[in-house]
Amino acid sequence: MNATSPQILRLVAFTEDPAGGNPAGVVPDARGLDAAAMQAIAADVGFSETAFLVPASDDGVTFDVRYFSPQAEVPFCGHATIASAVAVGSGDGAGRTQLLFRTAAGEVPVAVEAGRAALSSVAPHVEELSDADLDVALALLRWSREDLEPALPPRIAYAGARHLILAAATRDRLARLDYDFDGLRAFMLERDLTTVDLVFRESASVFHARNPFPVGGVVEDPATGAAAAAFGGYLRELALVAPPTQVTVHQGHDMGRPSTILIDIPADDPSITVSGAAVPMA
User: Is residue 281 part of a domain?
Assistant: First the structure.
């Protein structure tokens, strides 16, 4: 570890309210930290993710970035990317607006302006989910097939990390989250899933989401940018929206940390853009 303790910033992403959003740790200069040190810091910070940035250019535009939950490293994290970009891209008055984060999932360009950031995901893709895996997942969530929205079929979606997408037929079903933590964690680890993205469609362009994150040691994530990017790819690939379009995801309301995530879904660019605000924690 560094001879001196690294600076650790604490922000909340996808909100302008310091008491809302998803908390993220940000280490803006992680030079000299190995993976074990990063994991220890993330565990001590205790947020669902902490991002560790290593400057890779003299102009402060390009960074190598790693993300750690309290229990494990993940290839990509959206809310920690938004928080990190706001912290290093607009927090020092330098006027930088375009950053490049080099992550384990690939290169992620991020635009920053006035306390908001917009990330462009790696190319998304969607996979079928077997009936057997669906039944196991539903049992662990204590859902039934009758709880699902038929128009939004279950899938595994990727845009830097893998997420299981399940759509609830009612807002009430989404509001009742009570799952087998250890069982779901084991199920997800076996299938390399980062979160389960539980969604409800309020309208054609407005969704509500909840994201169990047991593989990171967290019951629920208040705002999940990586899942939002994967969900945007899912909506486009299954022709559930007409690109180009923007959809809004409300997350965290059921746990008292309201968050707003904007997803821009282009017609002619494989990337999905996920944007939101970030502010220092209360």
Answer: no
